[in-house]
Each structure stands twice: as C-alpha cells, then as structure tokens.
Amino acid sequence: MIKLSAFSDEACDGLRGQIEAMLENNVYMTELRSIDGVNIKDMTEDMAREYAKQLSDAGIAVSAIGSPLGKVSIDTDMDEYEAVIRHVCRLANIFGTDRIRVFSFFEAYEARDRVIAAMQRMVDIAAEYGLTLFHENEKDIYGDTADRVLDLQRNVKGLKFIYDPANFLQIGESTDRTLTEILPLCGHFHIKDYDTASGELVPAGMGSGEIGAIIDAICAVEGDAILVLEPHLKVFSGYAAIDGEPMKHRFDFETNRQAFDFAAGALGDLLKAHGYTATKGGYVK
Predict the structure, then answer these.
(1) Which of 107, 176, 222, 270 has its Cβ near the most Cβ atoms within 10 Å?
(2) Among 239, 261, 237, 238, residue whose Cα is nearest residue 251
(3) Rounded to two decimals, what is the model's pTM?
(4) Could you read off the pLDDT of 230-272 as tens digits, one per residue?
(5) Coil, strand, or helix at residue 74?
(6) Neighbours of 29 (CB within 10 A)
(7) Are 104 and 135 in contact (CB under 8 A)?
(8) Which residues have a Cβ under 8 Å from the Cβ of 128 and sit 6 or more positions away?
(9) Euclidean distance between CA atoms 270 and 49, whole angstroms
(10) Backbone Cα Rg of the chain
(11) Is 251 helix (H, G, I), strand (E, B) or coil?
C-alpha cells in the first residue's frame, strides 16, 4: 500500500484548517513542520501534547517530524546544538512518530569530515529516543548532490534517506542517475516536481521529476511506502524561514488551500494512472 502524508502547513497555518485539508484529500498523516506559524523546533512540549491530541482525535498520525535540524552552518557549536536536537527528539516521542527529517549543514562542502562526525552524533542522539533520522537532499547543504548523499550513506551508520526529486533537479542532478543510484536507498519520498526547462515548481507528473517512475519503482518493493506531498505550489507562512529564495510557479492559486487541493488531486490522478486504487489514507494495487 502507498500511504499518503503531507506537509499540511502548506494548506493552512492553523491546525484545524490543516486537518480539514488532509481529511478532505484522503490524507491521514502529516509530516509536521509548523502550526500557527510556529516551527516544530520552537514548539514547547505542552504545545506538542495539545496538538498531538487534536491530531489523534481527528484520526491523523504524524509520519515524521519535518524538522530543520542540520539546516545550520557546520560551524555551529554542536555541544550547544545538542539541546535543540534533544528537544526535537522529545517532541517526536510526544507526537508518536519514530522519524525525523534532517539536513547536513550549510557552508559544509569543504568540511566533509566534520559533517560526517556531526551527522553521526545526531543519529546517535536520536537513537537514544528510539528515533531514526532521515536525511533530505536539498540545495546548499553538504548532501545536496548524489555523490555526497552516497558519501553520507556509506559513512554515517544508521542514517536513512529521503528522496526529493525536485531538490535534485534544482541543482542540476540527472533524474536518470538519482532514480538508479539514490532512490533504492530511500525509505521516504517527498512528492515535489520541477520543470527544468522553465525553472518552475509544478504538480506531480507535470515536470521533470519522473514521479511516475518513482511510483513504478515503489511498486516493485514489498510492504508499505509513504509518499509525502510537499508541493510548494504557493508561498506559505513560514516559507522564508526554510528557504530564502523566491518560488517560481506555473499555476497561480488564490489560496494555499486551493494549491494544496490541486497538488493532492494531481498525485491521486498519477497513482490511478499507474494502476492504484484509492482507499482510506492511500492507494492499493
């Protein structure tokens, strides 16, 4: 079964609106990044407990914590940063997920050994809480290219990986290569598509990310897979805090909810075209 999750803060700031958007689009999991404009790392434990109850009452699980951990300079004092890591780990426990999305540091291309050591430290801390860290490839961090993702995979014990096709395309990586070499290493998939000819973020299946090929590859793997909708089809609250560059879009949506609904519909259509049938919370074949 392919299960659906989403960065639900792209639909609405408030949790009630996020829940409504997910349920109306057959999405029963969230990759929790922000609520009411507050990033996950800045939430208190009391806030997390209240949000976790609201999600549970609505029948929505947290597939992963969409944290910004590692989205800092490699020169960050890791002894001080450990408090942030542990706080996010405690929040993950409160939200009932065993996955945290992480990055591999800015200003780090020439600091490979320090990156490896810092990532291993993060993985080891997370393991104390029964958690697994999933590294997302993203521009400007150490693990943005296929070669450096492979370096992390070989040298950071226990680190797992997210496949984000649009992020690879935005730095000029070949989809043919990443589908062959990186996708098989990954157990978590962000659905974001990008048109290399126009430089536009587009709904799934309308760009160069070969989302259909990703779906076909997942078909060949037994067990469940999670596809996480992260469309970036409209600027949302808190975007500037996670990416300082402007988004370029093909479609113009009046509201974030419209953009979210359109993105969910496009992914659903693509899954159906590849032989899947909708069921509660996902698709089966």
Answers:
(1) 270
(2) 261
(3) 0.95
(4) 988 887 766 555 665 666 777 788 999 999 999 999 999 999 9
(5) coil
(6) 22
(7) yes
(8) 89
(9) 36
(10) 18
(11) coil
